[in-house]
Design a protein that fits this description.
Layout (H helix, E strand, L loop, with lengths): L10 H11 L6 H6 L31 H8 L5 H5 L3 H10 L8 H7 L22 H5 L16 H6 L8 H13 L3 H5 L9 H7 L12 H21 L6 H18 L17 H20 L4 H12 L12 H21 L7 H15 L6 H21 L1
Helix pairs in contact: 9-12, 12-13, 12-14, 12-16, 13-15, 13-16, 15-16, 15-18, 16-17, 17-18
Length: 397
């Protein structure tokens, strides 16, 4: 297991490689497809426009963003390079794609500039940049020069077209498309399964933003999970034929978000059995999860909310003893639950250093990773042990 949860999110052990490869580029599709005309649409300038030493390639901590991205961030070069691997060639062959480096089904996430119309892309911008500055912050044509003005507020920059990544709902929407959604035929061809976990992925990413701008990790986690559920319900509603694996994954995430939501009665609620692979129910889940994500991004998060969520999710052991639930669904619930518990424990600060709680969480991760041989009863026993440790810590604070 590469990395411990005390320093890095546990989802690294199962999927950080594939998550890292498919960066925050999905939102570029909106800028490209919604353009009124090439002349009126904001232009993508490429990372070179940010690389001056007087801008974001300087030696100072608050001026080295370009250097961090270009030398340490997995979103630079690796996404594009992945399209040239033998695995990508095999996937392309199954899908009858001539060249994954030139096909938009691949490049929309791996090399987003390839999907931008030529009139909206500066000649110096390189497709091989992978997921670069404007993939996250939006096309810079309208705000690059004035955004450095000292009299410009954050709101001024957003009004000019810079993406408001301080807003967790906006941030999650910028990341989720490429970190969660994979078309069924692409996955069947060999593409790895993706799990979107906004807080965990942010912790894994080399930091190029001020810590003072961070929202609490548990809040980031919960907004991300709600947005992921919205995307999965959207994808399920558009499947041409039943997709049992996706249904189980979405149902497991629905169970998790609802269980977390039950920690606070004022949050948007939905019926316990609302999830079903039918058009009307998927639409209901889609609307609820989107509303939930928006509200969670706007609230003032507190340690008390972290404690409530952690206590609520840690006390779900009995659910894994329900024999009416198939083992696959139990496994998918557990898969999301252990990631949630990890982020919530980290949100309590010093509690994450408790050795007994760490060992209990280790056992939960080990059990949840064995998807083909998942044992709900063993997981329930491990979860009860974890719950005991959580109760001890919460009662002592």
């Amino acid at each position: 297991m590469p990395g411990k949860h005390l320093t890095q999110p546990r989802d690294v052990c199962a999927c950080v490689w594939c998550l890292a490869v498919f960066g925050f580029a999905g939102a570029i599709r909106v800028w490209a497809s919604d353009a009124d005309s090439k002349s009126q649409s904001p232009k993508f300038l490429g990372s070179g426009s940010c690389s001056s030493s007087s801008c974001h390639a300087g030696a100072e901590t608050n001026r080295n963003q370009y250097l961090v991205w270009s030398t340490r961030d997995f979103h630079h070069l690796r996404p594009y390079a992945t399209l040239e691997t033998a695995r990508s060639e095999r996937i392309a062959e199954v899908l009858r794609i001539d060249n994954p480096v030139q096909n938009q089904r691949c490049t929309v996430c791996h090399a987003p500039f390839h999907t931008v119309p030529a009139g909206q892309l500066r000649q110096e911008a390189r497709i091989s940049e992978g997921v670069s500055c404007e993939s996250c912050h939006g096309p810079a044509g309208n705000w690059l020069r004035p955004h450095t003005r000292p009299d410009w507020s954050h709101e001024d920059r957003v009004h000019a077209g810079m993406r408001d990544l301080r807003n967790l709902y906006v941030r999650a929407n910028a990341c989720v498309a490429c970190h969660q959604n994979v078309d069924s035929d692409v996955q069947q061809a060999g593409h790895p399964e993706l799990i979107f976990e906004l807080d965990g992925q942010a912790v894994s990413q080399p930091r190029h933003w001020r810590r003072s701008m961070d929202k609490p990790g548990p809040q980031i986690w919960l907004v991300g999970q709600a947005v992921a559920l919205r995307e999965m319900s959207w994808q399920l509603a558009r499947e041409k034929s039943p997709n049992l694996k996706l249904e189980a994954r979405a149902a497991g995430l629905f169970w998790l978000v609802q269980a977390a939501g039950n920690a606070e009665g004022k949050w948007p609620q939905i019926e316990p059995n609302a999830f079903a692979p039918s058009a009307d129910q998927l639409e209901k889940v889609h609307r609820w999860s989107d509303q939930f994500a928006k509200q969670m991004s706007e609230i003032r998060w507190s340690e008390e909310l972290t404690r409530k969520c952690l206590a609520s999710l840690a006390d779900t052991g009995e659910a894994f003893g329900d024999t009416r639930i198939c083992t696959q669904l139990h496994a998918r619930r557990a898969e999301r639950l252990v990631l949630a518990l990890d982020r919530l424990v980290m949100g309590l600060g010093n509690a994450a250093a408790d050795p007994a709680l760490s060992r209990a969480l280790d056992r939960l991760f080990d059990a949840a990773q064995a998807l083909p041989d998942f044992d709900p009863n063993q997981f329930a026993d491990n979860l009860k042990e974890f719950h005991t440790g959580v109760s001890r810590i919460l009662d002592s604070r």
